[in-house]
Design goal:
By secondary structure, the protein is of the alpha/beta class. 53% of the residues lie in helices and 12% in strands. It has helices at 2-8, 11-18, 33-44, 51-59, 64-70, 73-87, 105-111, 123-133, 148-167; strands spanning 23-26, 47-50, 93-96, 115-120, 172-175. Bound molecules: adenosine-5'-diphosphate, shikimate-3-phosphate (S3P) and magnesium ion (MG).
Length: 180
């Protein structure tokens, strides 16, 4: 399908297809949007932006976790939408979105100007990755004590249940199962 074509074509074949449009990576926490986005940007010669980082800069608070704590998730979501709106008027960007960006329909009106790609990774792999790096930077998964894998897996399962239909709105889906 579209996704595999995109993943395996050479940069010089992909660039005319993109025609300067932005690429938005969507998917659950830990799916690799930030990591993979930087690589794709490098390969295509596009600029890379992470919407979480842009929200931190515009709010003036250096971490998403602290923004959730000092303000609220709703405040973070409002700023996330503003960041996506501002990016949507630009060209030749790879944008790593936050895992929850897909839940607001207004964000799709911005992302639809470009190509949206869902990085679809099994929940057990997500929980394993997140437990390995710790949950401190991901407020929705953070916990003071207990088994980080079990807690992350349970919370990711609940979030995926709410979000899977939204992720499926993406133009393309890349299943990263084989790489985990
Ligand atoms: N394709 C991959 N295979 C294995 N580990 C990965 C892969 N992509 C990302 N990771 C690891 O998973 C963790 C989360 O990646 P990150 O890019 O921050 O995800 P996201 O931005 O989607 O939340 C990081 O520790 C990263 O090194
Ligand atoms: O899934 C989510 O709701 C969130 C994902 C995070 O980004 P990553 O997907 O890059 O971890 C960040 O935006 C915030 O902690 C909320
Ligand atoms: Mg990220």
């Amino acid at each position: 399908d579209n996704a595999m074509v995109f993943a395996f074509q050479k940069a010089e074949d992909v660039l005319p297809y993109l025609n300067d449009r932005c690429v938005y990576l969507v998917g659950m926490m830990g799916s690799g949007k930030t990591t993979v986005g930087k690589i794709i940007a490098e390969v295509l010669g596009y600029s890379f932006f992470d919407s979480d980082k842009l929200v931190e800069q515009s709010v003036g608070i250096p971490s998403v976790a602290e923004i959730f704590q000092v303000h609220s998730e709703a405040f973070f979501r409002d700023n996330e939408s503003e960041v996506l709106r501002d990016l949507s008027s630009m060209h030749r960007l790879i944008v790593a979105t936050g895992g929850g960006a897909v839940i607001r329909p207004i964000n799709w009106s911005y992302m639809r100007k470009g190509l949206t790609i869902w990085l679809d990774v099994p929940l057990d792999a997500l929980a394993r990755r997140i437990a390995a790096v710790g949950t401190a930077s991901r407020p929705l998964l953070h916990q003071e004590s207990g088994d980080p894998y079990a807690k992350a897996y349970a919370k990711l399962t609940a979030l995926f249940e709410q979000r899977m239909d939204s992720y499926a709105n993406a133009d393309a889906r890349v299943s990263l199962e084989i790489f985990t």
